[in-house]
Design goal:
- With about 325 residues, the protein is an alpha+beta fold.
- The protein is built from 14 helices and 7 strands.
- The N terminus is likely disordered.
Length: about 325
């Protein structure tokens, strides 16, 4: 996913003002908030020692987290700009090299959890650069900050409680639980609630370590997609050529027709030939509008969108994974 941009000068100013202006009253409020979280967690049966160790990682709201949460950039990329930014040829080249090294681990794990390597490689590569980046924020600190701050506080408090549950289960040590500023964790970028539902043990050690175990990362991504209805050995989509401009009402992932019906409307493979199957159901997406790149997308495209509900993201995952695994 695209990194959040922020100005260094503004961040320095916010951090400085937070350090100077964090009043004793606010400090007491935050301490009281953490005490209430601790009491709630212990009442739910979590280890007092683990909870205390985890909450010791946050002493005041994190100014950097608040800056990123409150001042997300308001700009819109076209599909062509997004594609060029996240799918450079260097990413495909790196992905093929990484896949050659990891295929013996990934393929059996993907199959076991009802997915295939194309989707796993696409998500792993697009989210975290094939494991090169998994975040720099303490998840406990980030979630506590956002739960205390008030904007979507109930959501983030719930995620904080689930993060404490994960630590209580012993899959990761509190200090090693790192992720994004919003609490998405490890190489799979799961929020704690998604972790509890979908994280899986791929290496057989009894833990679900999406931070440093590639097998567990692959298993978790595959399990997520498998449980969301991934159809193994079926395509996510393909680029298509339009022999005439389609009406806007015909475009969009929910506007499904058979490929036979689409061919009657002038949709073809990129080389101008007909589809091999006329009965399969698909939809045409054309993110940048008429006379730009178009795709026929199928059921698995919508499964990828369950991971991140963006057409750009799903197209990026599909193109990257297919370009790596099918090369």
């Amino acid at each position: 996913m695209l990194q959040r941009r922020h100005l260094l000068a503004a961040l320095t100013s916010v951090a400085g003002s937070a350090a100077v202006g964090f009043s004793s009253a606010r400090a007491q409020d935050y301490s009281a908030f953490l005490a209430s979280v601790r009491a709630q967690a212990v009442a739910q049966g979590l280890s007092p020692a683990i909870v205390s160790q985890a909450l010791s990682l946050t002493t005041q709201p994190n100014a950097s987290v608040l800056k990123l949460d409150r001042h997300q950039p308001e700009f819109t990329l076209t599909w062509a700009q997004y594609r060029d930014r996240v799918l450079p040829e260097s990413r495909f080249e790196k992905g093929r090299s990484v896949y050659a090294a990891q295929q013996s681990v990934m393929s059996p794990v993907s199959a076991r959890f009802g997915c295939d390597d194309r989707a796993v490689m696409g998500i792993w590569g697009l989210e975290l650069g094939f494991g090169a980046h998994d975040g720099t924020y303490s998840v406990i600190d980030a979630l506590a900050t956002l739960a205390f701050d008030g904007r979507r506080s109930a959501f983030f408090r719930n995620e904080l409680m689930k993060a404490l549950q994960i630590l209580n289960d012993g899959d990761i040590a509190p200090a090693a639980m790192i992720g994004s500023y919003a609490g998405a964790m490890g190489q799979a970028q799961f929020m704690p609630s998604a972790y509890l539902r979908y994280a899986a043990d791929g290496d057989g050690d009894g833990k679900r370590n999406i931070w440093t175990s590639e097998a567990d990362v692959f298993a978790s991504i595959a399990n997520y997609l498998g449980k969301c209805g991934w159809q193994v050995d079926e395509p996510w989509g393909q680029e298509v050529a339009l022999t005439k401009v389609l009406d806007k009402a015909e475009i969009g992932r929910t506007r499904q027709r058979t490929l036979g019906e689409w061919m009657a409307l002038g949709v073809r493979r990129p080389d101008g030939t007909s589809f091999s199957r006329s009965d399969a159901q698909g939809a045409v997406v054309q993110p940048d509008g008429p006379n730009t790149q178009a795709f026929m997308v199928y059921h698995n495209f919508n499964v990828i969108r369950r991971y991140n509900p963006s057409d750009y993201y799903a197209l990026g995952v599909g193109l990257l994974g297919t370009g790596i695994v099918s090369a």
